[in-house]
């Protein structure tokens, strides 16, 4: 598990497919950057 830098929620590691420490939900919300 990792903590998302954006939403501070604990998420499974596989939700962090980007190289920054934000989950895919926040990643998508901010448009993939």
Automatic annotation (TrEMBL):
Please identify the protein, giving its name as recorded: Uncharacterized protein
Q: Which organism is this entry from?
A: Neobacillus niacini
Print the organism lineage: Bacteria, Bacillati, Bacillota, Bacilli, Bacillales
């Amino acid at each position: 598990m990792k903590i998302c830098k954006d939403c501070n929620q604990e998420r499974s590691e596989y939700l962090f497919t980007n190289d920054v420490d934000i989950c895919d939900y926040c990643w998508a919300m901010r448009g993939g950057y």
